[in-house]
């Protein structure tokens, strides 16, 4: 019965009515798993260095062993953030125009915060 | 007679269909509280990324810019914000592990779900307080 209701194209695409399939769900879970060790590492680093003087913080992030996980933390957390806020916007804003504007601002904000953080980090890593 | 706006059950409104009851009519089981807290801490952490960005930009800019950040962080209000960030991260992390367990099919029994929700609350407070105490011992405060 249900076989008659699906077109062959929709069957091979397997993307469903939102045209996105399970990509959003899967990316949110991938970043969640990555953020378990990354956020524990970040909190440990923050506790050790957030109160240190500027030179010590810059020297800490100039080390590749610290700069690389920090870069990964920035990427995973800002992406995870944009996916989570997207669901909240979709849940609570039902006016189509308002929703599209907020979804756009959500992605712009995530990119802006991520890019600004990553640039600052790279600056410390390349100019210790 | 018309029902109150939020009352469940049949009423005299168009089509005669019952409306689902509004949020405020329910008891607050701990599982529901944990779900709402997960979303709320997610939003708090989103705001917290601005402070993360500020920290990195200040550290990359130089001693003067960094002093402005360090002063704000050492302020009592700054310490409260940092503690809130820490607890939000701890709760979102622990409750996120609950979600990942559900995703692979574990922890759905009601007593289990209640227990793990309670563990997320208790564990996150212990982690945040513990981390704050470590910060106090290392630096005399988060960011001082």
Task: Please summarize what this structure is.
Chain A has 128 residues and is mainly α. Helices cover 83% and strands 0% of the residues of chain A.
Describe the structure.
- The complex is a heterodimer of chains A (128) and B (144).
- With 128 residues, chain A is an all-alpha fold.
- Helices cover 83% and strands 0% of the residues of chain A.
- Chain A has helices at residues 2-5, 8-13, 23-49, 54-62, 64-92, 96-126.
- In chain A, helix 3 crosses helix 5 (64-92).
- In chain A, 24% of the residues are buried.
- Chain B has 144 residues and is mostly helical.
- Chain B has 4 helices and no strands.
- The longest helix of chain B has 32 residues, at 30-61.
- The mean pLDDT of chain B is 87.
- Chain B has helices at 30-61, 63-74, 76-103, 110-139.
* Largest protein interface, residues of each chain: A-B, 35 and 43 residues
Helix content of chain B: over 70%
Mean of residue pLDDT of chain A? Answer: 90
Percent range of helical residues of chain A: over 70%
Main beta sheet strand tally, sense and closure of chain B: none
Oligomer: heterodimer
Listing every helix as H and every strand as E from the N terminus to the C terminus, the arrangement of chain B reads: HHHH
Radius of gyration of chain B: 22 Å
Proportion of β residues of chain A?
A: under 5%
Nearest-angstrom radius of gyration of chain A?
20 Å
Total count of helical runs of at least 4 residues of chain B = 4
Query: Biggest sheet of chain A, in brief?
Result: none
Mean of pLDDT of chain B: 87
Distance between the termini of chain B: 64 Å
Q: How many strands appear in the DSSP assignment of chain A?
A: 0
Detail the poorly predicted runs of chain A.
none
- Shape field of chain A: elongated
- Beta-strand level of the residues of chain B, as a percent range? under 5%
Number of extended strands of chain B: 0
Structural class of chain A, by secondary structure, is mainly alpha
Tell me the overall shape of chain B.
Answer: elongated
């Amino acid at each position: 019965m249900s076989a008659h209701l699906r077109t062959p194209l929709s069957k091979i695409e397997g993307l469903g009515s939102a045209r996105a399939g399970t990509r959003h769900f899967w990316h949110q879970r991938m970043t969640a798993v990555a953020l378990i060790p990354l956020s524990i590492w970040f909190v440990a680093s923050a506790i050790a260095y957030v109160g240190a003087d500027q030179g010590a913080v810059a020297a800490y992030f100039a080390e590749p062993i610290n700069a690389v996980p920090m870069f990964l933390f920035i990427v995973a957390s800002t992406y995870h953030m944009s996916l989570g806020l997207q669901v909240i916007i979709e849940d609570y804003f039902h006016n189509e125009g308002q929703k599209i504007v907020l979804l756009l601002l959500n992605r712009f904000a995530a990119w802006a915060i991520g890019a600004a953080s990553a640039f600052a980090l790279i600056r410390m890593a390349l100019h210790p | 007679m018309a029902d109150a706006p939020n009352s469940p059950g049949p009423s005299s409104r168009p089509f005669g269909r019952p409306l689902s009851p509004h949020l405020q009519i329910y008891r607050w089981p701990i599982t529901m509280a944990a779900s709402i807290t997960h979303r709320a801490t997610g939003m708090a952490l989103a705001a917290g990324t601005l402070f993360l960005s500020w920290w990195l930009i200040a550290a990359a800019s130089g001693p003067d810019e960094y002093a402005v950040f360090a002063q704000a962080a050492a302020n009592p209000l700054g310490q409260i914000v940092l503690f809130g960030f820490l607890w939000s991260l701890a709760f979102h992390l622990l409750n996120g592990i609950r979600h990942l367990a559900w995703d692979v099919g574990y922890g759905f029994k009601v007593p289990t779900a209640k227990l793990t929700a309670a563990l997320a609350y208790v564990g996150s407070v212990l982690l945040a307080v513990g981390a704050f105490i470590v910060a106090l011992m290392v630096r005399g405060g988060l960011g001082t």
